[in-house]
Write a structure and sequence with these properties.
273 residues; single chain; Rossmann fold
């Protein structure tokens, strides 16, 4: 499995980008915290003319805060199911394609399924951000808890048998009755908000991530990047990111941003990272 270093990113590719979509946990965030270097990288990309969209498995409630307060155009949340879109500084709107009655029914069915999973696997428990979720439920498997991989696999199989779609991030096992993933949710937003063609968006936007639930986006977007810690998850990825940073998490994100911005400069000649 060949991963190219950031030094292989060509200036014409960077200049052809309209925007960047990026994961949060263990991509921008370091153990759940936002560092200065990663946050500053967002402003550098913004100043270089790039639109920015966060894309996370974290809840809708978190995404609203990110969309309101970060230098981004939107935050796609809950693995692509909903979007908080920024229209003006501090002004955001929720985009949920599922009608309220259907959403309530799905939430109730998910709650029943989650209770059955916890009853069968007592070491499983819901994440501490579940109260802020709208479309899915997340089980904490590697954040505050450390759940055995075999138990996670058994719980995942039970969720699928119950009709749910599942995603595994670096910290959570997600369950949802929605059809979206990070790629389809992001593309639908780009089409609606930026007037992109569903196909052209794949070459005009880059994606940065680190984990299993980023797999659909790594496969979809022509220009994709992984922070260094993605190496631990390569066996689970059908298609790896095209480029990989030498550094993990927030520092890796900052180095990817720097590579993109530097190569967008008029004098860029593919200088090393």
């Amino acid at each position: 499995m060949s991963l190219r270093p950031l030094s292989a990113l060509q200036p014409h590719v960077a200049r052809g980008l309209r925007g960047v979509i990026f994961d949060l946990d263990d991509t921008v965030l370091d153990d759940g915290e936002l560092g200065l270097e990663a946050y500053a990288a967002l402003f550098r990309m913004r100043e270089a003319g790039l639109a920015l969209v966060a894309c996370t498995g974290r809840p809708s409630g978190w995404a609203e805060v990110v969309a309101r307060t970060w230098p981004v155009d939107a935050c796609v949340a809950e693995n692509g199911a909903v979007v908080w879109r920024k229209y003006a500084p501090g002004t955001v709107t929720l985009v949920d394609p599922v009608p309220p009655d259907e959403r309530r029914a799905r939430r109730a069915a998910l709650a029943d399924l989650a209770r059955a999973v916890v009853a069968a696997h007592p070491s499983m428990g819901l994440s501490d951000d579940s109260s802020a979720r709208r479309t899915d439920l997340a089980f904490d498997v590697r954040d505050r808890r450390r759940v055995d991989d075999a138990v996670v696999a058994a719980a995942r199989a039970q969720l699928i048998l119950g009709g749910a779609r599942t995603f595994l991030s670096t910290i959570h096992l997600h369950a949802s009755f929605d059809a979206a993933d990070k790629a389809t949710g992001s593309i639908a937003f780009l089409v609606e908000a930026f007037g992109e063609g569903a196909t052209t968006a794949l070459s005009r936007w880059a994606f940065i991530g680190d984990s299993d639930n980023d797999a659909p986006a790594f496969a979809a977007f022509r220009t994709s990047f992984g922070v260094a810690n993605v190496r631990a998850r390569l066996a689970a990825l059908t298609v790896p990111p095209a480029f990989i940073a030498d550094l993990p998490r927030g520092a890796g994100f900052a180095s990817i941003a720097r590579a993109i911005v530097d190569r967008r400069a008029p004098c860029a000649r593919g200088a090393p990272e």
